[in-house]
Amino acid sequence: MRSDKLQRYEELSESSRAFAVLKVIYLYLRDFNIFCATLTGYIPFHIVRSALYRGLFGVDLPHDSVVYWRCRFFVPDGVHIGHRSIIGNDAFLDGRNGLYIGNDVSIAAEVRIYTMEHDIASTDFAMSGASVRVDDWAFIGPRVTILPGVRIGEGAVVAAGAVVTSDVEPWTMVGGVPATFIKNRPIVKYALDTKHKRALQ
After folding, report:
1. Which domains does the chain have, with CATH numbers?
2. Under a CB-based contact definition with an 8 Å cutoff, are residues 129 and 96 in contact?
């Protein structure tokens, strides 16, 4: 007995079949690209990892920023990182709808940033999403999850383990699940010293 997938494929027009084949090829190539970017995260030399992220995978990564090892990307060329910013080990950066990280941003270990999610009200569980922005001088603590469409304001702090579902005002600290206001942060503008961190990575 023929499978449902095969039967549906045969019912398509010739142009629709060609499109379906091209779509499958694109998805396989995209997944292979993500797999290779993941493997790159295990290379124990910062200079090699960064060169591959920039040259092979299209990550917008300045030479004065640091991505620690085992970082994982979804659509790497949708990720844009500013100057003197630090991405901690085991981070997950989703570039499908655009992820924009500013200058002098510190992102701690195991942070997850998503730009797409499933719509639980959709009749076909469709995907929806929006870009995420992390503005200059923000600090994102360990194991934070940031959901699609969120903007982390200039100088904002997100406490460890928080789940951020809405925008965070500049120079404030938030925490919890979902993240809520804790206190204001003094306005302190600095340039992160990434030169020594690059030497250690």
Report:
1. 41-200 (2.160.10.10)
2. yes
